[in-house]
Design a protein that fits this description.
With about 550 residues, this protein is α/β, with parallel strands linked by helices. The strands form five sheets. A nine-stranded mixed β-sheet has the order 2-1-11-10-12-13-14-15-16, sandwiched between helices. Strands 7-6-5-3-4-8-9 form a seven-stranded mixed β-sheet, sandwiched between helices. Strands 17-18-19-20 form a four-stranded antiparallel β-sheet. It contains 18 helices and 25 strands. A hairpin with a 5-residue loop joins strand 19 (about 415-420) and strand 20 (about 425-430). It has three domains: about 1-215 and about 225-245, 3-Layer(aba) Sandwich (Rossmann fold), CATH 3.40.50.12780; about 365-430, Luciferase, Domain 3 (Luciferase, domain 3), CATH 2.30.38.10; about 435-540, 2-Layer Sandwich (GMP Synthetase, Chain A, domain 3), CATH 3.30.300.30. The longest helix has 18 residues, at about 40-60. Bound molecules: adenosine monophosphate. Adenosine monophosphate binds near residues 302 and 329. Adenosine monophosphate binds next to strand 14, strand 19 and strand 20.
Length: about 550
């Protein structure tokens, strides 16, 4: 027997309709790419999104068409999220930091009909447009005064495009399983793969992520997502914020310490979200300027592991609580959150920081398990580690335009991460499977070594890779970027690290480098480094 309840679909534009009706005067603030600050309300955002939806119809964009964006976090990108998906088409967010070949591939693979681009990224279009026979036009996200000069044809100005349109638009009704947003993984090997979110999965993800045990967003929050809208939808903030009526502060292209500090302080942001490298820049800037963040209560850190030293710096210097979170493009992205439960907050500081450096527990809707190479489930004892598998209504079942399922037996998705789960259910990422260092019969976590190394005051960034060793197969090599004006000798650093990690896992060699390579999503790019340094220990005569 079925239940008797209404079959009301979970559709994305309803989030903005709700925000406009019940939190209509709540602000959305953006740092403009053209310079200056833009400020309007949810009520304004709804009207402009409707104008844009009418403009899209005029351009001939149809249900299911892909509309690409190459854009920072601003109010115009926000309008695209609602107008494109709300009209039944698919918002395809493109990461401008990808290599040109990857961007070329992605636009062709997605068959984008139009591209909406920020001024910053217009040169990418000028360079690559010939490779995209699918493209009907380009819209520059600016006003007439700031339009770039170009020889390209069919380039439009966003503000002109929508200015004469009506702000009345009836959002079409459709099944909530319909596709809404397309986001490609950064693909360190092979071509990027598309993950196609539906309206339903997006709303369920927003419901799951906004809750207290998630990112804890409500109508009193002022949320500043530094995490870009061009990568996994800024962790769903553009959906969760209107759902709850939170004020949004979009940083535009200003991800540096000075720009972020100014925006945080003037807008009184209390919830920040971003990857560790961004916070490193912010914390360094604040130290140099002897400034303290006044308004910030919580900082969500994900994308890469949050080092204990960062959790401690936010807590002790800025009275801000770090919420460590984990997820991936295939998971919309939220999987686990290390939420500030009473038990966690009551722990003595060192134990609390240690727990906060775990990636946390699943938000309701996500199931996790770890398995060994035979497929047997590992113990949840915080020690045994295995392949991390996930399941849930906002997790991909297959990749865009691929025929086969992306799932294992039982409907589980293999994350490619290796993790432990403790008896309280806290998951800790040990490594990406391909980054784990296999030394003799033991596995060494590169993440653990990196996190300990960056705790040393002379170290700005650390990267550990496995390199060949004649006796142990692989041993860890630690590559370091030193903090400005600092020096540090190997024995001092090894002394600092001993006692914090198992002695046998300490790196065999330490090498200071000027910079470390990062992927388009800000993660350390270890593949090329492994190749470059593969014989480092052998050449040293180990
Ligand atoms: P992406 O799909 O680009 O968002 O990357 C997802 C991957 O980033 C995950 O599978 C993890 O390997 C890594 N990742 C995300 N969050 C964390 C975290 N908090 N700690 C460690 N690794 C993370």
């Amino acid at each position: 027997m079925q239940g008797n309840m209404q079959k009301q679909g979970l559709l994305i534009p309803d989030l903005l309709e709700h925000a406009a009706q019940y939190h209509g005067s709540t602000e959305i603030v953006s740092r403009l790419v053209e310079g200056g600050i833009h400020r309007y309300t949810y009520a304004d955002a709804l009207l402009r999104s409707k104008k844009l939806a009418n403009a899209l119809a005029r351009l001939g964009v149809q249900s299911g068409d892909r509309v690409g964006t190459l854009a920072w976090n601003t109010f115009r990108h926000f309008e695209l999220y609602y107008a494109v998906s709300g009209a039944g088409a698919i918002t395809h967010t493109i990461n401008p930091r990808l290599f040109p070949e990857q961007i070329t591939y992605i636009v062709n693979h997605a068959q984008d009909s139009y591209l909406f681009v920020d001024l910053t990224f217009f040169p990418i279009i000028e360079k690559l447009h010939n490779h995209w026979p699918c493209l009907k036009g380009v819209v520059v996200l600016t006003d007439q005064d700031n339009m770039p000069e170009t020889n390209l044809t069919n380039v439009m100005c966003y503000e002109d495009l929508i200015s004469d349109e009506s702000d009345v638009f009836e959002w079409p009704e459709f099944e909530d399983e319909q596709a809404a947003t397309l986001c490609y993984t950064s693909g360190t090997t092979g071509n990027p793969k598309g993950v196609l979110y539906s309206h339903r999965s997006t709303i369920l993800h927003a419901l799951g992520s906004a809750q207290r045990e998630g990112l804890d967003i409500d109508s009193e929050s002022t949320v500043l997502p530094v995490v870009p809208m061009f990568h996994v939808c800024a962790w769903g903030v553009p959906y969760a914020a209107p759902m709850t009526g939170a004020k949004i502060v979009f940083p535009g292209a200003g991800m540096d310490g000075a720009s972020l500090t100014e925006l945080i302080q003037t807008e009184k942001a209390d919830l920040l979200l971003g990857v560790p490298t961004v916070w490193l820049g912010l914390l360094n800037y604040l130290d140099q300027q002897s400034q303290v963040l006044e308004s910030v209560e919580r900082v969500v850190i994900g994308g890469s592991a949050a080092p204990v030293s960062m959790i401690q710096a936010f807590d002790e210097k800025h009275d801000a609580f770090v919420i460590h979170a984990w997820g991936m493009t295939e998971m919309s992205p939220l999987g686990t959150v290390c939420a500030p439960t009473r038990a966690l907050k009551d722990l003595p500081k060192t134990e609390r920081y240690a727990l906060q450096s775990k990636q946390g527990r699943p938000v309701f809707g996500v199931q996790l398990k770890i398995i060994d190479d035979e497929g047997k489930e590992c113990q949840r004892d915080g020690v045994e580690f295995g392949r991390l598998l996930v399941k849930g209504p906002w997790i991909a079942g297959q990749y865009y335009l691929e025929d086969s399922s992306a799932l294992e037996i039982g409907g589980w998705f293999d994350t490619g991460d290796v993790a432990t789960i403790d008896p309280q259910g806290y998951m800790q990422i040990v490594d990406r499977k391909k980054d784990v260092i296999k030394s003799g019969g033991e596995w060494i976590s590169s993440i653990e070594l990196e996190n300990v190394a960056v705790g040393h005051p002379s170290v700005q960034e650390a990267c550990v890779i496995g390199v060949l060793h004649p006796k142990w197969d692989e041993r860890p090599l630690l590559l370091l970027v030193l903090a400005e004006g600092k020096s540090c000798d190997d024995s001092e650093l090894l002394e600092f690290m001993s006692g914090k990690v198992a002695k046998w896992s300490l790196p065999d060699a330490i090498l200071v480098v000027d910079t470390l390579p990062h992927t388009a999503t800000g993660k350390l790019m270890k593949k090329d480094l492994r190749e470059e340094y593969k014989n480092f220990l052998i050449d040293m005569g180990e």
